[in-house]
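User: Okay, second chain of the day. Same drill as before: sequence in, structure tokens out.
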Amino acid sequence: MTSPTSRQLRLSLVQAASALDPAVNRDALTRLSAEHGQDTDLVVFPEAFARDFGEAGSDVAPYAEPVDGPFGAALAAAAADADTTVVAGMFECGPDPERPYNTLLLDGAAAASYRKVHLYDSFGYRESDRLTAGPLEPVVVDVRGWQVGLMTCYDLRFPELARALVDRGAELIVVPAAWVAGPRKVHHWRTLLSARAIENTVYVAAVGQPAPRYCGHSLVLDPFGEVLAEAGPGSPEQPEVLRTVIERTVLEEARRVNPSLLNRRLR
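Assistant: Same drill. Structure tokens below.
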């Protein structure tokens, strides 16, 4: 597939629940990519799509794979079959066999991986007990002429990572998540996503796993913070898909009207 022009990027955000059986999730990735990857440049699935976290504090190490393992192979095949680029979350084998990485894997027009930097040691959870934090290296990848930065879930609460991605050229920040449900959590999710878009004059595309365990509310915002598309809380039984096109003209206008990146004094 050739994008109509690098002035546009066509997105499909797939708000779908992952199961505890990795084979079920690989099948879902293949099916949903085929259904929603046509005429799309980038298909985004949630965090931990290769296998759900399970009960809080569960050992996920037995489900870790190398990036070229069964899930990586399924993702690459899905991207190739739909002639698009696909990104989804998985648990990746690391140096500590008991604490794998929480990794985003991207394949298609480009190939990249990002290991979650900020582990979810908050709101009563201790993700660092079961996972290893990734290196402090922001990941930006070229997808059809657009610079796409990668973040995962709890990373959203750390504005310095989004700014580091933009300093490396990001025009779109993609945020796969499994944003755990609870009081004020949807409000935090929407507010933080809006802030990251506005303060960085950047597009933000965030896709979460659905209710009831997680918040859903997948969201695409433009560099002015305007909502282009938003899902509801969703349910495990029915994936919800957001399709939208982002425009470089809007990015350029936002950075001209609001040149906050140029006006910074502290770096």
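The two ends are 39 Å apart (CA to CA).

User: Thanks, on to the next one.
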